[in-house]
Amino acid sequence: MPTLRDATAESPAPVRAVANAVAQWIDRLGGVWVEGQVAQVTRRPGMQTVFMTLRDTVADISVTLTCSRTLFDSMNPPLVEGASVVVHARPTFYANRGSFSLAAREIRMIGLGELLARLERRRQLLAAEGLFAPELKRDLPFLPTRVGLVTAPNSAAERDVLDNARRRWPAVQFEVAYAAMQGQRSVPEVVEALERLERHPDVDVIVVARGGGSIEDLLPFSDEALVRAVHGLRTPVVSAIGHEPDQPLLDLVADVRASTPTDAAKLVVPDMAEEVNGVTWARDRLRQVMTQRIAREQEWLVQLRSRPAMADPRNLLTARSGELDELLARARRTLAHRLDRAADDIGHQRARAQALSPLATLQRGYAVLQDADGRVVTSVDQASVGAAVSVRVADGRIHATTSSIEPHDVEEP
């Protein structure tokens, strides 16, 4: 196989020869210190290698940077996108893919990277104290009496908040407290403005608004004193600092984070047009429901009035009157039958009692003989000749004197 120097159009070198030669040349460089900015971090599940993009701080040039997961996880604070770093890495060319990368052996944060590292450590400490806890977040009032606004005088953020809020709800009232929104005076002035609005009796919500800027410009809104001051307020706070990618610590401690000052205006007041449409829809819906309800009730009344009982209530009385007449006749027949049966029973009982009465026996010709003392004489042994006796017959008594006594020696057949 010819060398690269001997390669000609008639005898070209294969791709692998070129790739391997490039890899060998790059390997001769050994470890180098490289300065750049981390633009992208990719951690793939199950892989022990973390892939990053290292961008030049001046030119539009970037290379792939890799490091072990152990090295990446050991950094405190964690390495984040946008951090400026100095990397001790070994240049590597992967011949199979024809790609160039730097394999990091040591990573140090510098400049802005160190600044971001301090902010991350501060975030971790404040989060550990519970200042960013979700349960501490308060709901914004639906329609605040007065909105407090902390911003720089004559700033674009002030115009965005005021114009958009008044466009949504023209009657909204603002209490504006001006403060420096960057520089050394920013933190004390913003804290003083917040405390002044907190004491205002009509302010129901406070908006802290500032336009975009560099990380250095937004540093006051990550100050620990400002974060603790917002945490101690009783009035809900909306943070509208910078643009969507910016996230100072004020966004974490505030009750609501707005991506921009315009978004903050949309959050603190409702849209009057939408509310009017909502009221109109609710009114129409209520009217529709009430109309349907009244129609159902009217239909029910018509059906109720069309029933025979409601059309002519006397029909019920007539039907019940006939039933009462029939029940009365049945009761009379039943009572007459029962009286007749009772009379027959009484007649039978009376005849039976009469048949068993001694008077009935006397009426058949029998008599009862009694001595002078009134004792019934049942044997000739109880009577004597010449004794006074009385004979009880069916219709009275006969008084007599015994003239003779004749016993029966033989029982008559």
From TrEMBL:
**Which one Pfam family would you cite for this protein?**
Exonuc_VII_L
Tree of life domain: Bacteria
Which chemical reaction does it catalyze?
Exonucleolytic cleavage in either 5'- to 3'- or 3'- to 5'-direction to yield nucleoside 5'-phosphates
Instruction: Print the keywords alphabetically.
Output: Cytoplasm, Exonuclease, Hydrolase, Nuclease
Q: Does the keyword Iron apply?
A: no
Instruction: Name the job this protein performs.
Output: Bidirectionally degrades single-stranded DNA into large acid-insoluble oligonucleotides, which are then degraded further into small acid-soluble oligonucleotides.
Name of the featured protein: Exodeoxyribonuclease 7 large subunit
